[in-house]
Write a structure and sequence with these properties.
globular; six-stranded mixed sheet; Rossmann fold
Length: 255
Amino acid sequence: MSDSPADSALDFWEPLRSSTQARIGLGRAGDALPTRDKLALRSAHAVARDAVHLPWDVDALERGVAALDLTVAHVRSRAGDRATYLRRPDLGREPASLDDIPGAAAGTYDVAIVLADGLSAAAHDHHAVPLVEAVVRRTREADLSLAPVVLAEQARVGLGDPVGAHLGATTVVVLVGERPGLSVADSLGAYVTHLPRPGRRDSERNCVSNIRAPHGLGYDRAAAILLGLVRGARELGESGVRLKDRSTAPPPELG
């Protein structure tokens, strides 16, 4: 007996599913999705909601970063709780206080790393420590000095500007939990800002996104790109739209 048209469609899409996490060739049951696909979609939506609302494991992150022989400091944004953070992005860019972060004169450190929980705490729980390890290794190999690592809660990318300036860092690298989707809920983004100071625009940053080994960009590959951007910013004297990634490493393997 020959396959039905629906079975043939599923056979057509099946080889492609091994190359993407996107939902393709779902088919239909009457006028709706098949039950299994509808349940999978609802499950993915629940995972995405959890990624946004659940807190990160700040104690585990601090232990992991401290194990890399790094000093750890903490800061909170002016968003007092998660609901405020989600409604008021502007408050997530401003520190409530910098008193718990050691201040230093401009240029004291070459690079500062800020971990901002962003919109996915799960991204940090799964990927932050190995990514920081890779960045730190390459930074030390390049003989660049590192400021204390700052863990920033209820934080947006822009919080790295006043924090980096307070630390006296020439360049700040902000690792932030990216907005989850229905295929990926634990992706890290990294933003490079040269000469950080309050008021920097997004056009003055460079972004490396979808850092989530093994299915996205790997940690060492991401670290290589980030250090290339840091070096490029130091040569150019700025980050942002004029700074390009000139890395020649091969693309990451997806799987």
